[in-house]
Amino acid sequence: MRVSAVLSCLLLAASSSPLAAQAKTATDAPAKPQESTRHEGGKHHGGEHSEGAGEKSEKSDKPEKDEKNAYDYYLPGADGKSIALSDFKGKYIVLVNLGRKSSYTEQLPALIKLNDNYKAKDVVVIGVPSNDFGASEPGTPAEIQKAYADAKVDFLVTAPSKIIGDDELPIYKYVTTGKSAPAGGPVAWNYTKFIIDKKGNIVARLDPDVAPDSPEFLATLDQILEGSYKPKRAGGGGGKGGGSAPE
């Protein structure tokens, strides 16, 4: 009896000691899981960043897509159908925004003459009527076409279009803001002229006050035809601007 009491006291003291408590805690704690190293579809768990970096490196090795040229764009035809500028491959295009009530409408006969005289040199004039500047192109599309037909205009005249603003024709966004756009910024007035070469590159821009029969215009066009013209790119200094509105 006395021996049993002594053993009970010893067991009670051992169970309440710090070493016993530490051993119990270590035994009861759940085992820490090992970090997974398996691959799934070539992707290491917890290693997604390395795959993304690999994708970025792969993409950086691919060449950038070449910028569009004029042949990627369309103009609205007077008949409601689209006119692909790629139909004019091998031609030099003089693109000009028209306004028959504009003070520059006096240039219309010179544009007609230019289209006729340079036809043998693969030059075509395309006129884009627009009411954006000074409300100079009023009327319905049919009325506008009739007015130019009555004026004996024999070059292509498109349907009336927006030249500036949110709804501007994409071709005008290209010729004014594209990587290869000439200096000048957005078109500022009627009869701003752009010249596109045989490969669809926009190479020159001339102000409204540079008439199609002026020495400056004809010299520029002749140099382009000869291949000696040096384009004046936006931000590169020099070059004619879009022209300011007449007073």
Q: What is the overall silhouette?
A: globular
Nearest-integer average pLDDT = 79
**Share in β-strands:** 5-15%
Low-confidence stretches: 1-7, 9-65, 236-247
Question: Please, could you describe this protein's structure?
Answer:
- This protein is of the alpha/beta class and 247 residues long.
- It has a domain at 70-226: Glutaredoxin, CATH 3.40.30.
- Helices cover 32% and strands 14% of the residues.
- The chain has 7 helices and 9 strands; from the N terminus they run ααββαβββαβαβαββα.
- The protein has helices at residues 2-15, 18-28, 48-60, 108-117, 141-150, 170-177, 215-226, and strands spanning 39-40, 43-44, 74-76, 82-84, 92-98, 123-129, 156-157, 193-196, 202-206.
- The strands form 3 sheets. Strands 7-6-5-8-9 form a 5-stranded mixed β-sheet.
- It starts with a helix and ends in a 21-residue tail after the last helix.
Summarize the structure.
The chain is of the alpha/beta class. The protein has a domain at 70-226: Glutaredoxin (3-Layer(aba) Sandwich). The chain is 32% helix and 14% strand.
